[in-house]
Write a structure and sequence with these properties.
Layout (H helix, E strand, L loop, with lengths): L2 E5 L6 H4 L19 E4 L7 H11 L20 H9 L3 E7 L1 H5 L17 E10 L4 E9 L8 H15 L4 E6 L4 H6 L3 E2 L5 E8 L2 E9 L1 E2 L8
Parallel strand pairs: 5-6
Antiparallel strand pairs: 1-6, 2-3, 3-4, 4-5, 7-10, 8-9
Length: about 230
Amino acid sequence: MTFVGSIHGGSLSPAIIFNNHKPPLRHRRQRPPAPPIFISTNLSDINPNNLRDLCTTCNHSFHRFPNISPDGKVEPVDVDKLRTAVSHSSVVVSVFARSELVTGSGDWYRRMIPLTPVTGELVGFGRAVGDDALTASIYDVMVTPRLQGRGIGRMILQRIIRLLTNKGIYDIAALCSDQDMKFFKACGFGDDMLGSTTMMYTRKSGSDLDVSAGRKLLMVPPLRKP
């Protein structure tokens, strides 16, 4: 089942507005600090081969319905199609970190080199596709497993939302899997008061259509001007 979130004005659901209870400090899990990273919104900083490698590491596919092997691994995306998909995105956000943070090894002199998309390793990604005027959809937010839980995914999502709302776009949908639902809710997405549904069209052997439905979530955009 798919899960869709959206931002298009309105108010937060009561569960998000009034859920102010916080556990005692001694019971709260301490999040590891975010490592030194370089965040880029420049399309030219993305190498499609490195992005495909990140997809493989995260077991993520740009396909909505990828082929899955018996061991649960998704089929890698064709590099040419990946390059085309990224080039036609309205917003792209890529995150780079030193390779030793990912591999756990590295020479001391490498740490003296300034961190850039050239010297760093691609460890996170996210993009939005839209009409650059009214609506946009967020796809493919991912962070390499070794650096998950450090707030990098939230930084990617916040940067995408800020870039879109700076263009005056507030009707923003976020398509994600069931396991990512908690993450998107923590970033401010909630149930759509209009009860909107997403219909997915696919081909299926033996029939013309296979229709899947998902839910939309609603979040108040920050600093929206009337």
